[in-house]
Specification:
The complex is a heterodimer of chains A (272) and B (607). Chain A has 9 helices and no strands. Chain A is mostly helical. Chain A is elongated and about 75 Å long. By secondary structure, chain B is of the alpha/beta class. Chain B has 22 helices and 22 strands. In chain B, a hairpin with a 2-residue loop joins strand 21 and strand 22. The C terminus of chain B is likely disordered. Classes of the chains: A mainly alpha (272), B alpha/beta (607). Chains A and B meet through helix 6 and helix 7 of A and strand 16, helix 14 and helix 16 of B.
């Protein structure tokens, strides 16, 4: 049954594994914390033999330590926000698609309306409602917008499943509607959902970085890849490494998630 | 035999097809003489299609083909074979919808190979296409040429496919299950057409089928295949009349026959009788969206149907596709919509029940569907599937009792404990259907609806499942509503039968009475359309088969008696008045204006 993965998917998995390990193990690798200020080395360029491998920022904080902390934040937000969007999106889409008729029409029009609103605007409003800089607020805000596409995908899949005979057999066996959704519809849409969720993670990370870049996301002394890029961009001409390090990390991370998601999607489609 | 042996048109020697370690075809040798028809029969997985796809060069690249095959002495498996294949061989498939390009008009589709291969101009090719459609006896040709495949009915699409196959004037036509997807009356028409084409064009025909009836109708010589090998070869009369190989004998024995003496052997009433289900004036309308801004059309799927089902009785519902038999069975289980009418189950009207009350009565009525794979959730194990009704409707049962009940049920349907943890993709079609039957029977229902439950299966599996249904009926007193287009199967299992045409019941009565003395012309036609397993009588039957055309659309039913457009006995009155059901004998009813007048004409063949 299990088919081999293609090269891209395998490379993506290895890259993601390495990045996640680096991010988690960073406190033991480097002696610096993300908020320690080294007054001797301010805006120091990267040097492998020196005290700071990837250099320091304008204030003298170790860039490796800060980037790894930012990577943890980005990964956390990406995965959690994606989970939130999967939970809402699957529940919403499966219910709408299965019940059909008027319920479906009302639920999906609601999705259309939220879609039509500029999403960044909603995220900004939501993140200002919560305490400034709270990570929990950030991922709830991002996940709350991200579920829309998921709901559409799941609804489409459910429409196809609703008239399959095993669903009729379950109805005839006296299975209650919530049970049918949970035991028959959700497991059968799992393939495309997992694939899409993987593709959604980089999008979530991008939202977060964008908000942080605008100064609405993670607040000092914590950093996220977006806020690091923002800081780096201001020093781009004098100290390019401050931009290049977080930007490279973000690019590799997004590329790896996209490759993995594409691989999973191809698999899910192949099964149909 | 006397005289020189004619040169074989197609000769195949030790052809093998393998995928990795799996050998789909194992050293098959065949030959077809010019102008003759070879029938290849076998059950699913016998490798019969694979062998011919190899000769057509249509196998996927990972297939490994060895052996020799030649057409008129020219090699078919080598590199230079592509031109021979296209010009001298043509193949038609089971499902004409997937073999026609959806966006091209029928006329262009037939004309295209003539333009590209034979260098004809488009107008000449279109004239040629019209002539080909004439040859396959398509009606209303100028209109057909401009239509798209989805606008044609199944039988018309198959005719168009045959016309396309004939376009380059092949020496050999390969027909892979050409009539399997068609209704019996249309099947008879297509078989007659293929016979006539072989006779008039001097073309050879290879027909691949699982159906002994098709073999009896078309084949001169027969090859029986099993698990990739040819187990028996010979002229059709000997294979059907005196088969030597045990497998051929078992295939023939499993094939349900209309002409069997002692048919209906599985139909045996238990003593006590009480009406379990009665349906009065049931009607199901669907609203069909029309194109553009026009008002939605009303499709009458089931029109004023009444029926009664007793304890331990099997009632057959027969009719061709679109007659409303499945809609009816789903409506009375409250699985599908129901417009008006009364459904009384165990003395209680259930047509308006909703929610929890409806859920509770479901324990007594269960259903088995046609497609064995689609009716099992691919993500669940067999034991979970069978346990599901118990979880839903027997919350009082604890896990240990439930597991024991599921294990006992699987044993009853003939599946060992090793199947409990498998999923549907690890099972064969017959095994899947057994799981579906176990799921339906685990609650010990009083009514079991079988919606074409054996139609998708090989004959030997079919025979086993019919035995299983008969056992269920006898041992548990379960009433069975058996929906099927296969009259021979219905005759074997059911005590009473109900014949439907375009939503209405046209005839109802005891099975033997209806099948031996059919009163309605439609019932007669259905009976006459069932293939016989005797080649001589089967060919005579095809020549005498009179009913043309196909079932009209349920959106646009003919006025009066719906069957009058195809009825050989129709008169002008039939188009004006709608016939009421009239009693013929005790519990035998017919809805035909002229049944008294035509009663004496043309005794049906099985009497």
């Amino acid at each position: 049954m299990r088919r081999g993965m293609n090269k891209g998917t395998r490379i993506a998995l290895v890259a993601l594994g390495l990045l996640a390990m680096l991010a988690l193990l960073a406190p033991w690798i480097t002696p610096y914390s993300h908020e320690y200020i080294d007054w001797q080395h301010q805006a120091a360029p990267p040097q492998l033999e020196g005290a700071h491998w990837l250099g320091t920022d304008r204030l003298g904080r170790d860039l490796f330590a800060r980037s790894m902390q930012a990577l943890r934040v980005s990964l956390l937000i990406g995965v959690l926000a994606s989970l939130v969007s999967v939970c809402i999106g699957v529940a919403w889409g499966a219910t709408a698609g299965y019940l059909g008729g008027r319920v479906d029409a009302v639920m999906m029009r609601f999705v259309d309306i939220v879609y039509a609103l500029p999403y960044i605007f909603i995220v900004i409003i939501l993140s200002t409602l919560f305490e400034r800089g709270s990570i929990a607020a950030l991922f709830i805000a991002i996940g709350a917008v991200g579920w829309l596409t998921m709901a559409r995908i799941v609804r489409g899949q459910t429409l196809g499943l609703r008239h399959r005979e095993f669903v009729d057999a379950a109805i005839a066996s006296g299975v209650r509607t919530p049970q049918i959704l949970w035991r028959h519809i959700v497991p059968n849409v799992a393939g495309p959902v997992v694939a899409y969720a993987t593709l959604a993670i980089p999008q979530m990370i991008l939202y977060e970085s964008f908000l942080s870049f605008l100064g609405l996301g993670v607040q000092e002394p914590f950093a996220s890849l977006g806020s690091l890029i923002n800081e780096g961009a201001q020093e781009m001409e004098s100290s390019p490494w401050m931009l290049l390090v977080p930007a490279t990390l973000l690019t590799v991370l997004l590329l790896a998630f996209n490759l993995l998601g594409d691989g999973l999607r191809a698999r899910a489609e192949g099964e149909r | 035999m006397t005289g020189p042996r004619p040169q074989a048109l197609l000769s195949v020697e030790e052809l093998s097809v393998s995928y990795g370690a799996t050998e789909a075809v194992q050293s098959v040798s065949l030959e077809i003489l010019p102008g003759r028809c070879l029938g290849i029969i076998g059950e699913s997985g016998a490798g019969k299609t694979q062998a011919f796809l190899a000769m057509m060069g249509l196998l996927p690249p990972q297939a490994r083909v060895t052996g020799r095959a030649s057409l008129e002495g020219q090699d078919l498996l080598g590199a230079a074979a592509a031109t021979i294949r296209g010009r001298r061989m043509a193949m038609i498939f089971q499902d004409p919808m997937t073999s026609l390009t959806p966006h091209m008009r029928i006329g262009d589709q037939i004309a295209e190979p003539l333009v590209t291969h034979q260098g004809q101009g488009w107008s000449e090719a279109r004239r040629h296409a019209a002539a080909l459609l004439e040859q396959v006896r398509m009606n209303d040709i100028p209109r057909r040429l401009r239509q798209y495949p989805h606008e044609l009915s199944g039988g018309m699409r198959q005719r168009a496919m045959i016309a396309m196959a004939l376009a380059c004037d092949p020496k050999l036509l390969i027909a892979d299950e050409p009539t399997t997807a068609l209704d019996v009356s249309v099947q008879a028409q297509i078989l007659a057409l293929l016979r006539q084409l072989v006779a008039t064009r001097g073309m050879a025909l290879a027909v691949i089928t699982h159906d002994m009836g098709v073999i009896a109708a078309l084949a001169d010589d027969v090859a029986v295949m099993r698990e990739g090998r040819v187990v028996e070869r010979g002229p059709v009369a000997r294979i059907l009349g005196a088969p030597e190989h045990a497998y051929t004998q078992s295939l023939l024995a499993a094939t349900p026959r209309m002409e069997d003496v002692g048919a209906g052997s599985l139909a045996a009433r238990s003593g006590c009788e009480e009406t379990r289900l009665s349906v009065r004036g049931l009607r199901v309308n669907h609203s069909v969206r029309a194109s553009g801004w026009r008002k939605p059309l009303t499709l009458v799927a089931v029109d004023d149907v009444s029926l009664r089902l007793d304890t331990g009785e099997a009632l057959g519902i027969v009719g061709e596709s679109g007659c409303g038999k499945s809609t009816l069975s789903r409506a009375l289980l409250r699985l599908g919509p129901l417009t008006t009418g009364e459904v009384v189950w165990l003395g209680r009207p259930i047509e308006a029940l909703e929610g929890e009350e409806l859920r509770q009565i479901r324990a007594g009525m269960q259903i088995v569907f046609q497609d064995p794979f689609a009716s099992l959730d691919p993500t669940m194990t067999v034991e979970d599937i069978v346990a599901e009704p118990l979880r839903a409707l027997r919350p009082d049962m604890d896990a240990a009792h439930r597991a024991a009940r599921v294990a006992a049920m699987l044993r009853d349907v003939g599946l060992g404990p090793e199947y409990a943890r498998r999923r549907s993709h690890e099972l064969s079609g017959g095994q899947c259907q057994r799981v579906a039957i176990a799921r339906a029977m685990v609650l010990e229902p009083k009514l079991l609806v079988c919606d074409e439950a054996v139609s998708a299966l090989d004959v030997s599996i079919q025979a086993q499942l019919l035995e299983l249904f008969a056992t269920i009926k006898r041992d548990h007193g379960t009433s069975i509503l058996f929906v099927s287009h296969n009259l021979a199967v219905v005759r074997r299992l059911c005590e009473r039968v109900l014949v439907m045409y375009l939503g209405r019941v046209v005839e109802e009565g005891p099975t033997e009475e209806v099948f031996l003395r059919p009163r309605h012309p439609y019932t007669r036609m259905l009976l006459e359309a069932v293939p016989l397993l005797d080649p001589v009588r089967e060919r005579a039957r095809l020549e005498a088969f009179v009913v043309q055309g196909e079932t009209p659309s349920a959106v646009d039913r003919p006025p009066g008696c719906h069957f009058h457009t195809r009825c050989p006995a129709a008169q002008s009155a039939c188009a004006e008045r709608s016939p009421e059901a009239e009693p013929v004998a005790a519990s035998h009813q017919v809805a035909c204006l002229r049944w008294r007048e035509i009663a004496g004409q043309g005794a049906p063949k099985i009497s």
